Amino acid sequence: MLKAALFDLDDTLSDHSWSSRCGVEALGTRWPELRRQSLDALTALHLSILNQFHQEILAGRETAESARPKRYRAFLTQGGMNPTEPMVAQAMAWYQEAYAANRRAVPGAREVLALLRGRKVTTAVLTNHHDVQEQWSKIEECGIAELVDHLFVSAQIGFTKPDPRAFRHVMQTLDVLPDEAVMIGDSLAADIEGADRAGIRSIWLNRTGSVSIPPPSAVTVTSLAPAQAVLDLIGGMAF
Ligand SMILES: [Mg+2]
């Protein structure tokens, strides 16, 4: 019997890619030099740099504060500019303003959470991040806070996905067994492989058309909409 549904946050519930694209677009609007690349290419470049620094922060080799200016400097430089310190600071401000103004939930995410709530399934977010408050703010700004029962942030629990201890910590806290839970996430390496190692079945949200192959314990969806189809999929999994 399904008792708990675990969700990744960024690009599973919170549409990080969309907000990030809006942030990059805001920089391109101000600096024509950046527009020598398409918005798609610039967004991919930015996400790649962001993910590199995210890994450095999770590994403790950078702090969020030390990484932030380096991240924007790398983006502007690789975007074809020769940024000064004030330009890096300006990029941070313009990006973050546009990112925050364009926060939204992943299409279907709110409806999936609402259907789970209707079935009295506990919902929990398990996210790799250094800042609990920042992750909670995302949940609130996406308008899904009342549908999320628990938030587990790697920096707080001491384990980072795909370490199975991160998943076991959640299981123990919620008092559920692995076969009473499902993990839903967009990262094959962190969410899906991690859940597999903890004995938890999963749904891989593959919105980007990745051709990677998930483990047999996972099923793949390309969208959380329509939500009922995702619920039917969860209900059809052999728990
Ligand atoms: Mg994610």
Distinctive features:
Rossmann fold, 10 helices, 12% strand, binds magnesium ion
The gist of it:
With 239 residues, this protein is an alpha/beta fold. It has helices spanning 16-30, 39-58, 64-78, 85-101, 109-118, 132-141, 154-157, 164-174, 188-197, 227-236; strands at 4-7, 122-127, 150-153, 181-185, 201-205, 218-221.
CATH H-level superfamily title of the largest domain: HAD superfamily/HAD-like
CATH topology of the largest domain: Rossmann fold
What are the bound molecules? Answer: magnesium ion
Q: What is the spatial order of strands in the main beta sheet? A: 3-2-1-4-5-6
Gyration radius from CA atoms, angstroms: 18 Å
Classify the helix fraction into a percent range.
Answer: 40-55%
CATH class of the largest domain: Alpha Beta
Q: Count every helix, treating DSSP H or I runs of 4 or more residues as helices.
A: 10
Shape: elongated
Main sheet record: 6 strands, parallel
* Number of discrete domains: 2
Structure description:
Helix 2 (39-58) packs antiparallel against helix 3 (64-78) and helix 5 crosses helix 10 (227-236). With 239 residues, this protein is of the alpha/beta class. It is 51% helix and 12% strand. It has a 6-stranded parallel beta sheet with strand order 3-2-1-4-5-6, sandwiched between helices. It is elongated and about 55 Å long. Residues 8, 10-12, 185-187 line the site of magnesium ion.
